[in-house]
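discrete fold record:
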Amino acid sequence: MISRRGESGEVARYPLAFAPEESIQLGSDYGATMGMSPDGKALAYVGVGPTKVKQVFVRAVSDLRARAIAGTDGATQAFYSPDGKWIGFVANQKLQKVPVDGGTATVIADIGSSVRGVSWGSNDQIVIAATRLFVVPSGGGVRRPIVRVDSATVGGSQAWPCALPDGNTVLYTIWHGSLASARIGVANIEGGKTTELDLPGTAPLGVIEGRLIYVGPAGTLMAVPFDVRRARLAGAPTAMSDQVLVAPNGGVNASLSQGGSLVYQAGPSAQQLVLASGAAEPRVLISDPRLYSTPRFSPDGKRVAVTSASGASQDIWICDIAARAFTKLTTEGNNDRPEWSPDGKRVIYRSSRAGKLFTIWWQTADGGTPAEPLVRASAIDVAEAVLSRDGRTVVYRTGSAGTADLWYRRVEGDTTPKPIATTKFTETAVRISPDGQWVAYVSDESGQLQVYVVPFPGPGVRYQVTIDGGSSPVWSPDGRHLLYVYAGKVMAATRSPGPAFAVASRELRQDGEWSIAGGGHAGFDVSPDGKDLLLVRSVGGNVQTIVALNWRAEVRARAAMK
């Protein structure tokens, strides 16, 4: 045990040990898998025990073994109610609750497959992040949006909510597509007001000792003086001594109790690129451990363009697969979401190099010529872009949650933008089919994310591909299949023969613990021969679950040193 004395009491840190047949799940693309009880005396977490079934466990911080909670099979997130009497969890696309001491699990609401964090507020309302922030009564009911996000208030999607004890304030992450551009936001449940703080970081954990606790872009826990009532910063941030494991999508596995004790996962934030096909053991394609996202095969399959993050910056790298050689392509601004030109000579990507707004740039894959802008928009982000197979047309998305619309235009000649989908809902993840006749995209029109296909360039009837939710569509190279993410799995929708678009079947293509959500842009790819998936897998390493009892004493001590 490692202790650090504060002004009042001690901070006691120690790693949780697990029996050989027990394990705790790592944080996922969809939220934290563990939560600390309000009094800091117990931990609820998603894990696997002797039965090999993923479910919720409860373990007192003073105990060596955990207790499984019946009725929680398939859980992906776990958290406490403010009074400590209930455990909330997410399983099978449903928000549920179960008494801490055991009993029957109750379904609170259907919430879909795209939830990125849940927090139980002190006013018996539960805040859910699903691109936007929603609230649902803990006794059950219909979820309602807290605030409409538009360009007049704040951009970016909303994730990792943290409801504060006042019952009306929610801290959250404003996700602009990367750790480097993520910011902390504040929302008012009743009034709907939203404020973006000038605070780079992700995953707010709470407010103690008058300080907002959050995770910096490099994973360091941070504390900054914060005026909750005015929703504004009241001083400069201070780095704490704890280092948290951060996923490329900004998620962390950490929980701060009301009394100021802390639990978090720490370890190397590194991943590998692997090829996976069905039940066969995945093959490591690139073993160099880095933070990867949105990998893309070149058309000939000999190279991979991928986003690699380091701290608060990220760039596009090119990997020659045969030579196992990495080359950094971008050097200015923050860059991500690479795509290839059909001839494999250029890489298209999103970049902030021209200012605060994201625009689409492209340059030769060998870095021999300077980058040039490809798609700009006036006073709004251009979040992703893909070229048609003939290279003559670019399809792209502008805006973010609440304002995201889809467009296309010619690369040369008349470059006037023309609409694909420009509704009051959020449309993202645009992908043009290999034959250029269809466009797939994601919309939240139904209340959850669904994948749709429309004729390109239109007009024509829209077809809904997914049934219970889905995101991140990717076409197979032959255009016969449309792959998408559902509940953390890669699914494949097979087209029926004929000129009209219709789905003949939907089946599981790949299961496992992958970083595939991509933040609205697909985080996986299909090999040019259509046989393998290119996926990002976390490197095992020495990931530890750390308990820090009375952690608020260190916050108090650090504040006194200022």
Observations:
- The CA atoms of residues 263 and 547 lie 4 Å apart.
- Residues 1-8, 150-154 have pLDDT under 50 and may be disordered.
